[in-house]
Design a protein that fits this description.
By secondary structure, this protein is α+β, with helices and mostly antiparallel strands. The chain has 9 helices and 21 strands. The strands form 5 sheets. Strands 2-3-7-6-5-8 form a 6-stranded antiparallel β-barrel. The longest helix is centred in the last third of the chain and has 36 residues. The relative contact order is 0.08. It binds zinc ion (ZN). The site of zinc ion has 5 residues, from helix 2.
Amino acid sequence: MTAKLFYDTPYAKEFDAELLSQTEHDGNYHIILDRTLFYPGGGGQPCDLGTLNGVEVIEVIEHREDIIHITSSPVEGKTIHGALNWERRFEHMQQHLGEHLFAGSLWNLYHIHTARMRIEGDNVSIDTDIPADMNAILEAESAANEAVWADIPVEVIFPDMAEIRELARKLPPENAIPPVRIIRVEGVDYVPCCGIHVSSTGQCGLVKVISCENHKGGSRIYLRCGRAAYRWLSSLWHEVRKAEAELVCGYDGINDKIASLKSQIHALKSQNEALTVRYLKPLAELLLGNAEICGQYRVIAHIMPNSSQDEIKHLFKLITDNDKDSIAFLAGVNEEGVFIMAGCNKENKNVDVRPAFRKAIEILGGKGGGSTFSAQGHGKNSEAVNTAVNEAVKILKDSIR
Ligand SMILES: [Zn+2]
């Protein structure tokens, strides 16, 4: 049986203990001491890490009455000096209390119940039983921070079950054996908990909501508290400083600058489109004038070097909008390969360009598809573009004769 020093002296960082047993399991060592400061994890709080006689502890678990310290090499000696990774433990204490302050506030203000909480790295995640809207979440965040600044003592008490049933935000599990450990923060929270906390709310430092998503009929809310919240705000500050420098404005002008840049991009796109149409129009007319007559249809096959997908699409539209009986087979070639577009005016129900298009795509070693009147795709084999277009047009002409 291991004495749980972590509950009696939650601020102690080092301890001495007697080695009770050390056994090898799958290349690791399971070490049991008569007493320990290493919290084995539980209630959403991860286990402590640190060293035993200088050997790294990689995990701590609870098994019946024992706390098992897992290491990857054996510990020497019968008397053990243990040292916690205090930075990690203290952050867990801050994060865990911050979670209580937030969940307690969410319950007090909106009667939204927390079904589960977990500390993972810098994040605390909380799952609620019903959806929590952002307004409720921010109100709870504000109340949690008011509790931090009021610097209220964090009490560990073992009341009788009648009091727990009356006052607790949630009831202990059915199989819990009294006395039940309750964490009480006067006016804010009263809840069964096996975790370790800072001793007053002020030491939590800050409770910051990061994000919220829908989860199993409720919400999953991500928080950061204490030093983890400070780290997050610090990195945010660095990012904002970069954006300020890039946009040449203060942080409160960033959104206006982005809106202005977006409208400039939109205007430039429209201008670019108008210019493209203007310079492609004479080409469309020339191609229509020189088209091969095939029964009632005018067949146009054209390869445009150094052209973009957008240019091919515009040229296609100019041709097929202009002449309802035109059938266009266009290929644009650039460093990325070949973009191919085949079709006719969509009112033309007697033409099916797909067999011809498929032949071209096969020769180009590409992918694509579409409808009877419009198909498009990409191919890598630029050298075969002439063959692809010629072979495809042959199939097309046979199909409309
Ligand atoms: Zn707790």
